[in-house]
Amino acid sequence: MTTAIQLTPQDTIERALKLAAAEGAQGCVVLVAETSSANLRWANNTLTTNGAMRGSSVTVIATVGAGEGTAAGVVGRSSATDASLGEIVSAAVAAARESGPAEDARPLVDGTVGPGWDDEADETDVSVYESFAPALGEALTRAGKESRWLYGFADHGVTTLYVGSSAGLRLRQTLKRGYVTANGKSSDLSQSAWVGAATRDFTDIDPLAIDAELTRRLSWATRTVSVEAGRHPTVLTPAAVADLMTHMYRKLDGREAHEGRSVFSKPAGGSRIGEALSPQPVRFWSDPMLGGLETFPFVAAQSSGGSQSVFDNGLTLTATDWIRGGKLENLMQSRFTAELTGAPAVTPAIGNYALSVDGATGSVDDLVAGLDHGLLVTCLWYIRIVDPQTLLLTGLTRDGVYLVENGEVTGAVNNFRFNESPVDILARFTKAGATVPSFSREWGDEFSRTATPPLLVPDYNMSSVSQAN
Amino acid sequence: MPDVDASFLALPRHELADAALQRAKDLGATYAEFRLERIRSESISLRDSVLESAYDDEDLGLAVRVIHDGTWGFAAGVALTTDEAVRVAEQAVNLAQVSRPINTEPIELADEPIYDDVTWVSSYEIDPLSLSRAEKVALLTDYSDRLLNADGVTHVTVQVSSVNECKFYANSEGTSTTQQRVRIGPALQATAVDPETGRFDSMRTLAPPAGRGWEYLTGTGWNWDEELAQLPGWLAEKMAAPSVEAGRYDVVVDPSNLWLTIHESIGHATELDHALGYEANYAGTSFATIDKLNSLTYGSPIMHVTGDRTAENGLSTVGYDDEGVAGQQWDLVKDGILVGYQLDRRMAEVNKDVLGTNRSNGCAYADSAGHVPIQRMANISLQPAADGPSTEELISRVQNGIYIVGDKSWSIDMQRYNFQFTGQRFYKITDGKLDGQLRDVAYQATTTDFWGSMEAVGGPATYVLGGALNCGKAQPPQSGAVSHGCPSALFRDVRILNTTQEAGR
Prior knowledge:
Chain A: This is TldD/PmbA family protein. By secondary structure, chain A is an alpha+beta fold.
């Protein structure tokens, strides 16, 4: 059989740009992502699945003149060879010619050759677990001997992204990401605890320490207490706060707000930019250079929407305050939507966020120590939007709800379904701790670059009791 | 029925499989399987009748899974060369070796007959990806215009996802299968914004995603003309509707809403990997544990729920699963009692004494070549009563209640007990008749209480196959498409919440 030649990312981009020009494209942007990952999954104290994957994707965005405007055609493929690249580019140009003028059309972003452009893609493989896997095996054995059940997942991945355009842009950036989430249960499965953490390379993750923390939390359940549904003073851990705030982050769409269909819309029209959302000095921001949570420092968009545009690919991302001093400062805007809505700045989506309260210090334990009577919630689950008008979310507590009495954890409590809005929580919380790297239980696998503080909410709405444990 | 795409058949399926399986065998694997998958997809979105985004994608790759020294190993790659197939096989064996210290249960698989080079194609007429984009956008613009030009509609969004999935599978036992499936998911949503109060609300079309082709968008299987004509009026009525009074009501649930409740409270709860704890760290476990098989009262005696890998136009319908097991139908809940689970070959073998069978029912599936097969949901459906009533007859049995139509928000706890759902439209029922729409409605219940309160199910004429394209499961996360059929059904004394009050307003 004839063997097609795999191209390097740089060759893919240079050849695609030439092919697009030859096809008559007005402009072209090419994104190449080289990915690799390796994972381990365990349950009932034994391995259940594992995997090592290598992937490659090419996205060609071709632009052509369309009447008095410009149209874009976007085609993605899992990899490109010397034989297939022409077909991909042709398909993108043809798609552009079949589309009408794009509302968001803007001149392609200018640029030069960025650092490391000629470098090969970075890679990971199963060797990242060389010390982790044996230690995990030891933890599983120990748990079995001590009548605990362990369940968990470890994942490590590396993405190297190359972006090139007919406007001269040549950018390369590598992102490493890894995380572990672990669940421990008592021998009768009646009690459950969870620990999750993000990492870059697993050298800072100790499975035996994770098991020890799970064991400590399970020990809090020596006393179990039934608590009725209702509005309770509740300490949310940073992980639980991230569970909620990720939803708020995703609703920072400037165009939706401008059109009157968002929690950030003003009733009389336009957005709530400039309005106080919290009486506290809350800051909610993104920054591609955020220490430990670095993300791509430029726009990499495969589709256009309210908060991004394919025409903005390569646009430099800078630190952006969404909320500052409790006041809504910015919403997500592409160049097109910023102009459309009269936004103060072009502020596209960024792949991380941090929530902080000026002057807040201390940990979860400190907030617990200051609480006379209430609940400590360690993580949340199955969170969905009930009402977009208020950004009311529903979801559940899981794997660790505890009773706090006189500043101490005194027992484990049943789980609850909650109905709450993260926007309302910012308006109501009474105490906050220091902001720390956090890992959302529900969304961390998809959006792991978050930093949040613990919060005390005086009247968290536990709508009903859940029997799950 | 269409044939498997010739360009997929032209790929070196057997050569790659032979190279990978032989290498795995040479390295000591006692079992190996190979997949070559090509997933072509297109996503088109319009905003206020203007094309906002269109993305044409193709994911093509290969995967090898082995059992080596009693331990799984899985690896995947993208280059379609025999060298890459061999490299991926070696990596899978390597991963099994690294994982061996963590594995305490040697992997054994249930037997399955051998299927030698068989082919299967799903039921559809027109591959959406074979049509020009201009033709598709023109139709969607027309549909969008119909809504946008109606009184009271401020914004309209359209999203259509289309997929053509080709898969070749071969294992070391001698089975090899080639399959092609097509599916499509259209949704049009109209939004109304009240400029005086700032209140906004939306309403979406109810056409479920389906294992059909583009013909679905032009009238086969769904009446678009009728729904698009009615939707603006429904939205206007909802904007003017009174807020519901929270309390307990009898409810008649339309299939357009009930499918999602089935998915969450029965579909996931009867996945044996949930019940065994494999998903405990992620989506959770299940209250329907295996010790309760044939004894758990799941719901009322009229409750009959089936698993089905063979339903025509089903999103989870296949000829063979990703372990080479042929598609089947079976009971999960019969006469209100838990009687079955969804299985893969390993779970069937390990639990054969309790299950009373050692055959998998074909529920192993990976969403792409880049992912390992996991125990995945079949089409899980509530069966209608053979001579059951119409929806109108069900409504006529309610004095003070609510008729719920269309799905919207959904959430259930990690053992599948406590759930909360909303919908697209809620009609007050007074003395057996619809009495105008309500708003701010959610229903909340415990799974067995809810199904135990089911007093009647509708007849076959009320049965609709709903479903979702994006059911999430497993770590790393995988997205699955699955259908759920059901009739209308009547439930007594269900808790209804007012979502505005829940928000503290």
